[in-house]
Amino acid sequence: MTDQQSPTLPPEPPWPQETGVWASYALHCHCGAIRYNMKLSPPIFESEAEGKGVYPVMSCNCSYCERVGYLTVHPLVENVEFTQGLEHRAEYLTSGQTAPLWFCKKCGSALGADIRGLMEKMGAPPRYGLNVRMLKDGDVKKLTIKEVTFMKDMPPKYDIGPPESEKSRYRLSGSGL
């Protein structure tokens, strides 16, 4: 059974079938402290696809992706290599705590997510979710963007509550918060 046929995956996973045409990409955070490479099939740019189709880049509507501007692809873990600066990579766990989100401790760039645990739960091969805005070269305007809207309604619901300063004000005003 391929990862495209797993009974626990959504009907249409956010990654395409491999086409046999591969492209390699260099990525890095804004300051360059973290550098990494990925290999994808099909490629993300039409000029590399040999007429066999492109890898549509996912624009997710979950609260985190919307806030940081992620445009994501999902390469297999075996097709990603971090070459420099792992000591500068930090993780942030959202309320679901299923996929650590990576960012650079030096410049704050949003790099991607470790979705291996999520893939395991879905019965799929291990993948990362990588933000293509970190591409060293490449025009993001030339990408095929696929809007993904199912995440916004997935539990747990995003809610951080009022800031501490407002909580104090609300308590003083008798609102019960």
UniProtKB/TrEMBL annotation:
Pfam families: GFA. It comes from Cercospora kikuchii. Keywords: Metal-binding, Zinc. Residues 25-159 form the CENP-V/GFA domain. Residues 156-177 are annotated as: Disordered. GO terms for molecular function: carbon-sulfur lyase activity; metal ion binding. This is CENP-V/GFA domain-containing protein. Belongs to the Gfa family. Gene3D superfamilies: 2.170.150.70. InterPro entries: CENP-V-like, CENP-V/GFA, Mss4-like_sf.
